[in-house]
Design goal:
Belongs to the C/M/P thioester hydrolase family. Pfam families: 4HBT_3, Acyl_CoA_thio. One of its GO terms (molecular function) is fatty acyl-CoA hydrolase activity. This protein has about 300 residues and is an alpha+beta fold. The protein has one domain: Porin, CATH 2.40.160.210. About 20% of the residues lie in helices and about 35% in strands. An eleven-stranded antiparallel beta sheet has the order 1-3-4-5-2-8-11-10-9-7-6. It is globular.
Length: about 300
């Protein structure tokens, strides 16, 4: 793979939290940092990934995160550090549960419960991977698509993300003539190699999962990301990890929106490795407001 150590190192740095188990009341306390950015808000995937790493540091290394359920409560300020408080809810024979709050200015910006599990044998099946999917190397990069635009957001998407994202469905960065459909798919992987720690790979996938989850909602109605007056924000996030994987190897991200109503849209996603195995499933509801709809919801 083409190595872009700079953007991957940014991802690794933000996943490397400050703090130790000794700094605690009824919570273990960790501190996370936000890399320099043009956006006025902290990227939701960052807060998810950092919360996962905080919770992971309070659990036995043999137990891997298998699910999370969280709510985005307030926008994060990228100029401030984020404090993560981890409450140890339960440690059973096979499972551990943790509650994580991400704080700024003494108020939670994310509230999340996670569950970890010891490896275990059991029943095995999964939804099949879509067939006739083009190879990722045959598709344009985000830099190819929007890197020539002289706009800070376009430059960030094209050159500053730690993931190489290759669209299978026609991108909707700009208005498109493609048919409206509540489905989308991309290949993605980190821009360079990652350490072997499986916890980093699971946290990094949560980070990337937040890139595109609401795109099928927009695509269903022919709304591009640059639609004037579009206001969009993640409300909640749920994720399940099924099998081990590497985020520095290509993963197929298949997305669908089953519903949109009341200025909210639901997006779901499935991640497959190149062997066709389903490695993770994700869902998110978001607020989506358009100026064409004058009522405040």
């Amino acid at each position: 793979m083409t190595e872009d150590l700079g953007t991957t190192q940014i991802l690794l740095d933000l996943l490397n939290l400050d703090g130790e188990d000794q700094a605690r009341t009824d919570e273990d306390i960790f501190i996370g940092h936000t890399p320099a950015q043009t956006r006025p808000r902290v990227f939701g995937g960052q807060v998810l990934a950092q919360s996962i790493m905080a919770a992971t540091r309070t659990v036995e290394p043999s137990r891997a995160i298998h699910s999370l359920h969280g709510y985005f409560l307030r926008p994060g300020d990228p100029s401030q550090n984020i404090t993560f408080g981890v409450q140890r809810l339960r440690d059973g024979r096979s499972f551990s549960a943790r509650r994580v709050h991400a704080y700024q200015n003494g108020e939670p910006i994310l509230s999340m419960i996670t569950s970890f599990q010891e490896p275990a044998a059991g029943l095995e099946h999964h939804d099949p991977m879509p067939i006739d999917v083009p190879a990722p190397e045959s598709l344009p990069t985000t830099a190819d698509l929007v890197g020539h635009f002289d706009h800070p957001v376009a430059k960030e998407w094209a050159f500053e993300r730690p993931f190489d994202v290759r669209h299978i469905s026609e991108p909707i960065y700009l208005p498109s003539d493609s048919p409206n459909a509540a489905d989308s798919a991309v290949w993605l992987r980190t821009t360079s190699s990652m350490p072997d720690d499986p916890a980093l790979h699971r946290a990094a996938l949560a980070y990337a999962s937040d890139y595109l989850l609401l795109e099928p909602v927009l695509r269903a109605h022919g709304v591009p990301w640059i639609h004037r007056g579009l206001s969009i924000a993640s409300l909640d996030h749920a994720m399940w990890w099924h099998r081990d994987f590497r985020v520095d190897e290509w993963l197929l991200y298949v997305l669908h929106s089953p519903s949109a109503s009341s200025a909210r849209g639901l997006g779901t996603g499935k991640f497959y490795n190149q062997a066709g195995e389903l490695v993770a499933t994700v869902a998110q509801e978001g607020m989506i407001r358009l100026p064409e709809f004058s009522e405040v919801s």
